[in-house]
UniProtKB/TrEMBL annotation:
Pfam families: Hexapep, Hexapep_2, Mac. Keywords: Acyltransferase, Repeat, Transferase. Belongs to the transferase hexapeptide repeat family. This is Sugar O-acetyltransferase. It comes from the Bacteria. One of its GO terms (cellular component) is cytosol. One of its GO terms (molecular function) is O-acetyltransferase activity. Residues 4-58 form the Maltose/galactoside acetyltransferase domain. Transmembrane segments: none annotated.
Length: 188
């Protein structure tokens, strides 16, 4: 099994594998080009995003600078807005639904490392778990989403939250660690 196959299967893998290094170098070249575009160059931005990311829905609005590790494993739905300085460590699928708003300085981390140094040395340097962001979600500024987290549809995550576990649909959640504060209904 290749290191890439291990990475995508959620097993321990070596991130410094030559194939993975080449893939990350490709992504860096593309996002650096993207980050140099002007606001008036929307067709060029969409072309670069289409090459960089695994899939891109209609009407993407990704404000530079934008950073990712591979790009290939990011799936954007329709009408996604990503504000400045977003970082996505897409070592496995990171799925972002339709009509999602992502505030400035948001980070989505699908990668993790063993806590014990001996395990990092013996088992591999990284492990990855997918992230799924539902439809109509708002991640306010400076939110961090950790590996393996799913956020349900129509949910808002408050600014500065660290999301370490799944958050259900139709709620407002915030904090460190992030927790449900209340349900969101048409009345509130």
């Amino acid at each position: 099994m290749t290191e890439r196959e291990k990475m995508l299967a959620g097993e321990w893998y070596w991130a410094n594998d030559p194939e993975l290094l080449a893939m990350r170098a490709r992504a860096r070249e593309l996002f650096m080009r993207y980050n140099q575009t002007l606001n008036s160059e929307q067709p060029l931005r969409e072309e670069i995003l289409g090459t960089l990311l695994g899939s891109v829905g209609k009407n993407p609005d990704v404000q530079p600078p934008f950073y990712c590790d591979y790009g290939d494993y990011i799936q954007l739905g329709d009408t996604v807005f990503i504000n400045y300085n977003c970082t996505i460590l897409d070592y496995c699928p990171v799925t972002i639904g339709n009509n999602v708003l992502i505030g400035p300085n948001v980070s989505l981390y699908a990668a993790s490392h063993p806590l014990l140094a001996s395990h990092r040395i013996q088992k591999g340097s990284d492990i990855a778990k997918p992230i799924s962001i539902g439809n109509n979600v708002w991640l306010a500024g400076n939110v961090v989403v950790c590996p393996g987290v799913t956020i349900g549809d129509n949910t808002t995550i408050g600014a500065g939250s660290i999301v370490t576990r799944d958050i259900p649909a139709n709620v407002f959640a915030a904090g460190n660690p992030c927790r449900v504060i209340r349900e969101i209904t048409e009345e509130n």
